Amino acid sequence: MNKRLLYVSLLIISCIIIFSQCIHKQPGEDNKDLRGEQFAGSAACMGCHKRIYDSYLSTGHYKTSGPASQALIKGSFVNPHNVFSYGNGTKVVMEARDSGLFQVAYGDSVLQELHRFDISVGSGRKAQTFLSWRNGKYFQLPLSYFIPAHSWANSPGFPPSYPKFDRVIPSTCFGCHSSAVGIKSVSMEGLQLSEEFEKNQLVYGIDCERCHGPAAEHVAFHTTHPQEKAAMHITKIGGLKKQQQLDMCALCHSGLGTPQKPAFEFKPGDALSDYFFPDFTRPERAAEVDVHGKQYQLFTASKCFIKSDKMTCSSCHDPHNNERNRLQAFSQRCMSCHQPEGPAFCKMTSLPAAVLSKNCIDCHMPALPSRNITMLTEGQTSPTPDSMRTHLITVYREETKAFMAALKK
Ligand code: HEC
Ligand code: HEC
Ligand code: HEC
Ligand code: HEC
Ligand code: HEC
Ligand code: HEC
Ligand code: HEC
């Protein structure tokens, strides 16, 4: 049997095993957390962790999915900004009707298909894409909103010549962009895995318990023991081993591996290798890894990581805070190890330390184009790649030149 077919069959079989163990709940059973009684829901954390809760609301994690609404969707529903033409008399118009928001396909001005925006995926840092509910399945809509171009664009990987409305979305998508999704059944349709979802059963965003694990017992204990100042019935992340801390983030920031268990069951302290078959990317080939979604592989291939003992994603990122574009603050974190007076400081001696210190990032973690995520806006013949910060921290000569040129201006 050919290798690829064998691989695909194994993938499908492991998916069936996994999803047959997935959350089963009848709609309307209760209004408690979809994930069961061990979960309290983020709103329950607000009372005692107000500062963290409030800043968390500004993060990409919190905003990464939600019920589609005009307030949430960044793209325009107003003519002429709401039209995407395929160039052959076919167009899709984003329409706000009394009954909801729709992507409506017209061929020579005759309405051909009409599909509702139900779920919005992506916080809108870079892009948003939209899912439509139909008979137990979610379908990705043909048009996404692409922030760098401020425009509607053909969804990544969609055909450029006509609007495709039948791209089925698998639960793995929710595994990285939500905190739970209700799955009704899993079956085979030919060689394809077919999942049926429960309507409106979703915990949107990456919530507190997606990272911290079930916390109902923690909430109950501290509610009845307000004098207790030490955290009880919750995993102390600072007390975990380095690899365990990295795995917490790698669950969603190392790409989609071949699953062994549903990603939703992951709790802090678990080993990623119990959830996905290992990825065999070798550190010396890191330069070939796509910048999209693979921060773990790139960061762990960097000398900073390899040559220091305790580095994790938290060495630079505060998981409860939106620190986007605060390059000087990030540079301060570099300088906790690379002090200006020390031997490990920047070797770029043509610039004074005071200038270097403001922005280590653009030269050593430049934004590079993704090969996998590209968007075609109206009238373009070749798609524009989305750019992302590479996490392979090293010397980039070309980007340094660009930085120097910008500095001179
Ligand atoms: C009734 C009060 C209360 C509620 C509600 C509460 N916590 Fe806590 N939590 C505490 C106290 C007290 C501590 C210990 C002091 C501290 O770290 O703030 C704590 C600590 C923590 C810690 C740090 C553990 C450590 O030491 O590293 C985490 C994580 C945590 N809580 C998560 C949550 C989550 C998630 C929720 C919501 C599902 C939540 N808490 C709701 C009282 C509460
Ligand atoms: C993306 C994953 C993620 C999410 C979402 C998240 N946390 Fe955390 N949290 C962490 C990590 C990682 C640490 C340890 C940080 C460190 O090592 O400095 C942490 C630490 C904590 C701590 C103890 C340290 C501190 O800063 O006081 C508390 C309390 C806490 N989180 C509560 C919450 C609450 C409440 C929410 C939801 C409003 C939440 N977290 C959402 C990953 C997350
Ligand atoms: C359950 C999946 C999941 C986990 C676990 C997770 N992330 Fe994320 N993370 C995402 C997704 C999805 C996005 C993209 C959010 C968006 O903008 O729509 C993201 C975005 C981010 C961003 C960019 C956010 C911004 O607002 O600019 C950072 C930084 C980040 N994650 C760090 C972490 C770190 C550190 C951890 C571990 C403590 C972690 N993530 C754990 C899924 C996850
Ligand atoms: C293995 C985890 C994973 C899976 C599966 C996944 N994503 Fe993502 N996605 C991410 C992470 C992490 C980011 C942000 C960081 C990056 O792009 O490197 C992201 C970014 C995005 C963004 C851009 C958000 C923004 O504004 O920056 C969109 C839109 C998106 N994903 C949609 C989807 C859709 C739709 C699916 C399912 C078909 C999907 N993703 C599957 C992890 C995942
Ligand atoms: C926890 C400490 C630590 C932090 C934080 C840190 N580094 Fe490093 N970094 C190191 C160590 C250790 C080395 C290896 C030095 C050696 O080879 O002697 C290194 C190496 C490097 C190198 C050389 C890489 C190569 O391929 O030759 C660059 C460039 C660098 N760091 C930049 C940065 C930048 C930029 C940041 C912040 C975004 C940063 N570092 C944060 C510890 C750190
Ligand atoms: C040495 C510091 C450092 C470490 C360690 C680090 N990051 Fe980052 N990360 C950055 C900087 C700097 C940015 C760019 C922030 C910006 O441009 O606003 C960034 C951006 C990101 C983004 C958004 C990328 C984009 O362009 O959209 C994600 C996602 C992310 N980091 C995830 C992670 C994860 C997951 C880990 C651990 C595997 C990690 N980071 C470790 C410094 C770091
Ligand atoms: C203008 C771009 C630029 C900025 C800004 C910059 N660097 Fe560099 N850095 C370079 C270049 C180029 C080299 C290689 C110099 C050489 O070998 O000729 C380098 C070398 C280094 C090295 C040594 C790598 C080795 O080969 O051992 C480290 C560590 C480093 N930089 C860290 C930093 C830190 C930390 C900051 C912020 C405080 C920073 N750099 C800011 C461009 C820059």
UniProtKB/TrEMBL annotation:
Gene3D superfamilies: Cytochrome C3, Flavocytochrome C3, Chain A. Transmembrane segments: none annotated. Residues 171-213 form the Cytochrome c-552/4 domain. Keywords: Signal. InterPro entries: Cyt_c-552/4 (IPR023155), Multihaem_cyt_sf (IPR036280), Multiheme_Cytochr_ET (IPR051829). It comes from the Bacteria. SUPFAM superfamilies: Multiheme cytochromes. PANTHER family: C-TYPE POLYHEME CYTOCHROME OMCC, DISSIMILATORY SULFITE REDUCTASE SIRA. This is Cytochrome c-552/4 domain-containing protein.
